[in-house]
Amino acid sequence: MAEVLLYHHIQGLTDGVQAFADELRQAGHIVHTPDLFDGRTFDSIEEGFAFAREAGFEAIRERGAAAAAELGPELVYAGFSFGVTIAQRLAQTRPGARGALLMFSCIPVAEFGGAWPEGVPVQIHGKEADEFFDEDLPAARELVGSTSDAELFVYPGDQHLFADPSLDAYDAEASALLMERVKGFLASV
């Protein structure tokens, strides 16, 4: 059993993010899903981005870090897209991290330190033709090339938030494979 801190994407803590967390809970894991947008959800990436810009990206990220501070240090940090910016930072900088799940995004490792922390496994997931993930693919490949504890999974298609069943971008087949891989990862940490 793993304890997971799962950060939502730019459209908020949607029913789909909650469903993803619930499936992990049913597999026996403890999953925390802080709501960084205070109950707001958005119909599009653009609307969510506009809200986050107005609220302040760094203020939202700090709210995410504060949620981690309330929990023990031995967490798996997970994030969907925008949530990766928080999850990856904490996985790289907070002592005791048990792992990281970076879905639909990856930040250059140098943003949060010189190297990926030794002994902290990480999985990165994204779609091959996703315009947002495409920008992050070089960082994902660099991370995977820097440590034997990293795996990169690239799925066919162009949907960005494809594992959120409450959104039009949902891809049931790719989402099921992602979930299978995530469950395997969590069982091993």
TrEMBL record:
GO molecular function per UniProt: hydrolase activity
InterPro entries: AB_hydrolase_fold, Dienelactn_hydro, Dienelactone_hydrolase-like
Keywords from the named record: Hydrolase
Start and end residues of each Dienelactone hydrolase domain: 4-187
Name of the molecule in the record: Dienelactone hydrolase family protein
